[in-house]
Amino acid sequence: MISNKKMIRETLHTRARNEILDLTPLVQRMVGSAEMQNGMVIIFSPHTTAGITINENADPDVKQDLLTKLSKLVPQSEDYYEHAEGNSDSHVKTACVGNSTTVLVEGGKVMLGRWQGIYLCEFDGPRERQVWFKLVGFDE
Amino acid sequence: MISNKKMIRETLHTRARNEILDLTPLVQRMVGSAEMQNGMVIIFSPHTTAGITINENADPDVKQDLLTKLSKLVPQSEDYYEHAEGNSDSHVKTACVGNSTTVLVEGGKVMLGRWQGIYLCEFDGPRERQVWFKLVGFDE
Amino acid sequence: MISNKKMIRETLHTRARNEILDLTPLVQRMVGSAEMQNGMVIIFSPHTTAGITINENADPDVKQDLLTKLSKLVPQSEDYYEHAEGNSDSHVKTACVGNSTTVLVEGGKVMLGRWQGIYLCEFDGPRERQVWFKLVGFDE
After folding, report:
1. Where are the alpha helices (DSSP H) in A1-140?
2. What span, in angstroms and rounded, lies between the C-alpha atoms of A129 and C132?
3. Domain C2-138 is found in CATH 2.60.120.460
4. Alpha-carbon distance A63 to A118, whole Å?
5. Distances B60 to A75, B19, B66, B127, C35 between C-alpha atoms, Å
6. DSSP at A61
7. B33 by DSSP, 3-state: which?
8. How far is residue A105's CA from residue C21's CA, in Å, rounded to a whole number?
9. Which residues are registered as beta bridge partners of B11?
10. How far is B49 from chain A (nearest CA, A)?
11. Which chain C residue is nearest to residue A56, measuring alpha carbons?
């Protein structure tokens, strides 16, 4: 059991107001370093304007279309927004996409579908962001 | 290990059709009472018109803007809705926001970002609602 | 502890571009076969155009309204979509609904609210799809 280890906090830098960063290689490396064979990884964004999702990792146009469509649905400015920071849209997008996910590990491998990648979704960058990773091993 | 304890069912009362209730102090108290040091809490809404999300817990305008924007995107009435109860919008919002989340516990503390709170999102109130909480301790 | 068992991979066939398939009886049967009394099931779609959600399992109109509303919000064609496969909408819907969920098990029973069902949401069918199920038993 390795689940008693503290969660890992990684710092990432985003470069645009809306951006998707691929966390997949990072997660796989953590699982390798921990020598975890069988378990799960809980991936958690401690932010309220940046979420976590799993989506296509092949054609980069998919990421772009996702960000563009979300910005069309939830534009930065609406005359009824009352929050003074001008990032109410970022909060709404984060609530829709979600701020955490769980992936399984089997045989030391992060289990994802062929086209899937684990993403940090920046909705109010550019910023320094943290992502938290908790590796929980299951009993053999 | 405390993970064999049954989940805790809490009853809450909402006061508006759309409302966000902060569950954070409740979750922290449960973790304290259980004396859980290291683990996770799975928070689950057993309803189909009320979800669970994590978002900003500082400026209450964020909650208001989130509810308003969701109601603009998903209005209560659409001429193509077939469900006779008049709450198809509440189901759509719940599917987008999600009905559960998982938070980590370390050193007896619910691990959240500085601005985060755990929320019950009421989308078809006012009602009596249940939220289920499962505390799962990790081995030391 | 049964958590060391490999995840179960089920193959399902969808029949429409947008469709909701009920996974609830399948999950309950798996829990029964594994004789799991106390634990959780992580349900994961390894696809980027099909998600997992929990919503109403009583009136089928709710499923229809959910699919219709999502297609109004996120139509198949937008002049700014760059992804050449013509399914950018399917990716956006999957990101909004999410691609996994966790349900609790107590006394051998999948714990859901009275009206809830666990759903595979097909957003780019008809196709053959996989869903992954990981049963994690908690210590007694």
Report:
1. 24-34, 60-73, 88-97
2. 31
3. yes
4. 12
5. 20, 11, 10, 22, 46
6. H
7. helix
8. 26
9. B130
10. 15
11. C48
pTM of the model: 0.97
**Minimal CA separation from A9 to chain C, in Å:** 23
Instruction: Kindly indicate whether the ipTM for this predicted assembly is greater than 0.85, answering yes or no.
Output: yes
CA distances from C20 to A122, B13, B96, C32, C113 (A): 30, 31, 15, 24, 18
What's phi and psi for A50, nearest 5 deg?
Answer: -150, 130
User: Which chain C residues have a beta carbon less than 8 Å from that of A55?
Assistant: 48, 91, 94-95, 99
CB contact under 8 A, B82 and C101: no
Q: What confidence score (pLDDT) does residue B41 get?
A: 97
Kindly report the backbone phi and psi dihedral angles of residue C126, in degrees, each rounded to the nearest multiple of 5, phi listed first.
-75, 145
Q: What are the structure tokens assigned to A106, written together? A: 């089997």
Q: Tell me if A83 and B61 make a contact (CB, 8 A cut-off).
A: yes
User: CB distance A66–C92 less than 8 Å?
Assistant: yes
Residue stretches of chain B with pLDDT short of 70: 1-4, 140
Rg for chain B, CA atoms, rounded: 16
Number of other CB atoms surrounding residue C72 within 10 Å: 12
Q: Where are the domains of chain C?
A: 2-138
B107 backbone φψ class: left, alpha, beta (φ>0; ψ -120 to 50): left
* Interface contact flag, A132 B55, Cβ < 8 Å: no
- The Cα of C25 is separated from the nearest Cα of chain A by a number of Å equal to 22
- Give A106-121 pLDDT, tens digit per residue: 999 999 999 999 999 9
The stretch C54-83 carries a mean pLDDT of 96
Q: Tens of pLDDT along A10-41?
A: 999 999 999 999 999 999 999 999 999 999 99
What CA–CA distances, in Å, run from A115 to A111, B139, C48?
11, 34, 7
- Strand runs (DSSP E) across B23-110, as ranges? 38-44, 50-56, 100-106, 109-110
The one-letter code for the residue type at B80 is Y
Distance of CA A19 to the CA centre of its chain: 11
C2 pLDDT more than 70 = no
Distance separating alpha carbons of residues C126 and C72, to the nearest angstrom? 20
**Residues B18 and B123: beta-carbon distance below 8 Å:** yes
Sheet with B128-137, side-by-side order of all strands:
B8-13, B128-137, B38-44, B100-106, B109-110
